[in-house]
């Protein structure tokens, strides 16, 4: 089934509407947070603070992760989507109130952690339910559309947020403008909740005979079952680790870009220019993600999933060398575009590989393991980069380390003898 046919698919298109509306809203919310925390005139941005910001954002993903699979394999995923989006919409009104008053510290951190923790449940429910709506042969294309379209819409939403903030910046003080964006994001999540009512209660799982009571201890037992299932499917496990390492490298490069735009390419005393430059670089990354999705199904058809993943990760290893050679606006954009382009090929192909190996009984808990590993790699990549980067962001060490880590995964973890080239 091709992209056009999938767009016309009556059930799959409803899932896309929920995912894409929510992720466009994610972009608006994240742009407001970045403006408030990292690009405020009265706040200095250094590598460690920015890396800790990534860690704080991803902390709830890792904490909630062990229990996401338990919930999604035992209750209606449609109900989980509806109530989670409603709760997230209400939570953002609290975030807006704190930002409006200029409140930072523990209070803001807690409500932001709740917002991102809820987001983890939503994205996992969407991923786990996708395989029940399309046939196995269409999984690569379906993942390419769902994940890539969502990633692109996060970037578009962020750009929209920056644009709206620029329009109202002259009419309100900075914190009030950021609060307005967060209120807008709250309305966006309400729309996502309403869109989820178009899906039947158990249309995206779990199946009736799998539903049972979830408990605190069951979350850890299910995580263990998820790891056990992956131990029986080593190619899926290797693909998850490869994807995690790639995302960790992307985080390190994103941190580099943030510091270069904030403190080197633009005047640090004019953080608004840095925010615009950072948004510009992310736009090219978003274009790379979008185009990468179209290539993935053809690459898989031509080379097979395993070999295609090996090829695109090797090509990803070459991309950071541009930024290592020179830290300029051009090399940053080139690195952002190409690394995201090949990385998205890796992500959507591996998602389809994992989904094809797992029956629905284990799907929620295996994707919970997937999320925890990816988020751990993202936090690690950010913290390692923070230790290596100067405040200016000018360094060849981080891009070289990212390139080396990708190459190591290709030659060791994804080598032909243990990661077979089959379709």
UniProtKB/TrEMBL annotation:
GO terms for cellular component: plasma membrane. Keywords: Cell membrane, Membrane, Transmembrane, Transmembrane helix. The keyword Iron-sulfur does not apply. It is found in: Cell membrane. One of its GO terms (molecular function) is transmembrane transporter activity. Residues 181-423 form the Major facilitator superfamily (MFS) profile domain. Pfam families: MFS_1 (PF07690). Its main location: membrane. InterPro entries: MFS, MFS_dom, MFS_trans_sf. It is a multi-pass membrane protein. The chain crosses the membrane at residues 47-68, 106-134, 146-167, 179-197, 280-300, 312-338, 367-389, 396-414. The keyword Cell membrane applies. CDD domains: MFS_MefA_like. This is Unannotated protein. It comes from freshwater metagenome.
